[in-house]
Amino acid sequence: MSNAIFRTDAERLYGEYYSRVRTLTPDFADDLLREALTCYSIEAHAAVCITCRVVVEEELKEIYEILVNLGHQSTQRPVEQMELEPLKQWAHRLGIIDAAQFGTIGDIQRRGNRSAHGPTADIADHWNRRLAKKKEKEDLAEPLEIWADRSDALGQITATSKMLHDLKIKKHEIKSRGLSAIKPRRGRIPGESLSHGAELAYRNSQQFMQDGWESVFG
After folding, report:
1. What is the enclosing helix (H) or strand (E) of 50?
2. Residue 189 phi/psi, 5° resolution?
3. Which of 68, 91, 184, 201 could be a cystine partner for 75, CB 3.0 to 4.6 Å?
4. Separate counts of helices (H) and strands (E) for the chain
5. Of 66, 33, 28, whose CA–CA distance to 48 is shortest?
6. CB 102 within 8 A of CB 92
7. Is the CB of residue 65 less than 8 Å from the CB of residue 170?
8. CA–CA gap between residue 153 and residue 37 (Å, rounded)
9. pLDDT along the chain (218 residues), means of 10
10. DSSP conformational letter for 81
């Protein structure tokens, strides 16, 4: 696919996003999304995934700062210390995002992390085999997909633009209604948090067993 087609595709995607948010106040996250689309237009797929992750984080920070200024009790930490994971948990706790949105942000987060920090071992092995095969054929004209391909990038942009729209709507609601727009969620813990807690509990139990074994048998 030529760069011209990618640029046209990027312009279309931004036009679709802008048509949904044109009545809302633009902010830094909009500029970041535009940057992600620029990366998409030049086939920088990993950069798209990383930038989209930052888009969501920055918009959640915008909402967090509004609640800081309103004196909400949940905003004890400085916004500079808040990264996407605690922001995501915080937003769900306050009902700023629902369970489905929590999952979507988790997907955006994981795609961005993989592109920023490298793939898992099996993906790395697959990529290395691909590289070796291409070198054998001396066919390196086609760009290699470094940890993210066009499908990853397109999915990331689509999910991020929708999430940014939803967060901007919520931000506008909070600005208009103040703290009355916040309805903390109670009872149900996100599945991702349960999974993480179970993993930690398993690791702790393994460590306790190991410690017990060593204390008995040296």
Report:
1. helix 45-69
2. -95, 135
3. 68
4. 8, 0
5. 33
6. yes
7. no
8. 9
9. 62 77 82 91 91 96 95 92 94 95 95 78 56 58 66 92 94 92 66 55 55 52
10. G
